[in-house]
Design a protein that fits this description.
The complex is a heterodimer of chains A (about 425) and B (about 180). Chain A is an all-alpha fold and about 425 residues long. Chain A has 16 helices and no strands. Helix content of chain B is about 50%, strand content about 25%. The chains are: A mainly alpha (about 425), B alpha+beta (about 180).
Amino acid sequence: MSNGQNLEEKERERKVRRKIFYLIFGALALISCGFLIWKLSILILPIIVGALMAFLFRPVKERFEVRWLPHEIQVLCSFAAIGLVLFFAFNTFRKHIPDEEQKLEFKVRLKYKLNDRYRQLVAKSPEGKTNAVTALLEKELGPLMDKMNQVLALNAEERNLFLKYAAGYNGKPPIQSKFVDYFRANQTTGKYVIPEETAMGAASPTAPAAPAPTQPPVAEEGTSLESKFSAWILAPLIFLFLGFDNGQIRRFFISLVPNRYFELSLTVLDRLDDAIGRYLRGTLMECFLVGLTLALGLILLGIPLGIAVAIGVVSGLLNAIPFLGAVIALVIGVSYALIAEDVRPLIPGLNPNDLALYVVILVVIAHVLDDVVFQPFILGGAVNVHPLVVVIAIIAGSLIMGLWGMLFAIPTVVVVKTAVETFFKELKDYRII
Amino acid sequence: MSARKFAADKLLWETLGRWKRSSPELDRIQFLKTVPFFDRLSNRQLKTVSDIMFERNYDTDESIFEEGQPGAALFLILDGKIAIEICRETSTTRLAVLERGAFFGEMALLDDTPRSANARALEPTRTLALYRNDLNGLMDRHARTACQIYRSLASMIGDRLRSTNELVQMKISADTARLE
């Protein structure tokens, strides 16, 4: 055998060895990753949130890049700026977080107002007659109201505390007298629907005894909360390290790609980055605009600035969940409208008693604006996901990870869809498949 | 500031700069200085360009890109030899053999039109690749550097266009003479 043939044979063997090595290494890496994901599932969400924050922060970092300043100092300056903004935002927000007294006052007020509205809704005519609509409302809403009353009822400790605050407690002035009147009125609120057994007399002697209330596992809950909290420390850390990254992570992953797929992987990564970036930043902008519309609308309806902004922020953030965001905005807005007092709308001619109706109209307007103006102009045709896929993704997300799952369902669908589409297109363009 | 102090300062900063950079990085910058494509750039600008380049190693006969594939990057040869070839149904025509310091695939910096030829390593080869979108990104962050690279690219394409025109004119003259 000639020397050249020998070399060729060795080279072929080396290639086979390399393939086997890559296969074994890849399989081991996959198994290890799967095991780690399964065992450390608690860390997934903080990592995703941290990475997402870094992804959204990147354009800001690039926009304010100063050529003569070292990269690390620039990133530190950007972090300092973000920290300052967050500090002021948190301080402003903290002022609107109700304290113990305000929480009690809110519960009393909500219970009183809800019952008051309900009684007005199902009120009988002066002749004492009830029409079919009122009867239906009474039948459907009665049990719901009973449940609400049960939830909003103050326990013995809270009642004592409320009475203390009513007289002035903990260095605070006494609670307004009207809220004390609400409190008294709430004490007399009875049930709207009387259970049949109670109506018939005593409960059946053969009825099984109610199970003894089980104590929640306090220690376990504490540990779980602690571990959740420590897991969430990862989010800012991931954000910080990804913020400092100057393309090294991308470079590392690209260096692992075989030469044959080098240009392909660069193109796929870039298109993916572009599509996901456009979608996420577009969604963020859309949520901001919906929140702003709602907040401005609520201010025009006469709702205090702090409350209007808080409702706007929460509704804007939840707008990222298709369909459900609008419903939640409606529930929060209408709930506040039902308990609001002394509302003076800035738009002349509006009746403050119909505030709930105006809030419904406002939410509808905000979401029509979102569908007709914000989404087409900001998101454009960036991501075209079928409504059925959206619904299924949200339900699946909620089943897997609850509220967070719902929030991340659509971005995940978008990432997977864009990745698959781009990958297959580029594989065909590069004549690999 | 006195000239002596200025010189001392410059020396200090240069030493610090050299100490900060790892040796392969310095080698890469030194190499980039020798490439005509980047001859207008200062050391600092070359460092910026070097930071966005990818180093790739190819074995003998390994393909770098193939004719018809969308182009995404320009390649510079750090070490080794590259053959630029066109494959037709029955034959392969070798257009050029490129060595250290040469570059190829530069049209990919403009758009993703398909590659016009194959590039294949003739021996173990090290290359530096400059990805189109990274250069576009440089346009936002270091506009001056990106402009100078584009200017080099434009003047190089202009030169090639001139030589192609001359070739076409020569061919037309030869054809006309043959017909007469």
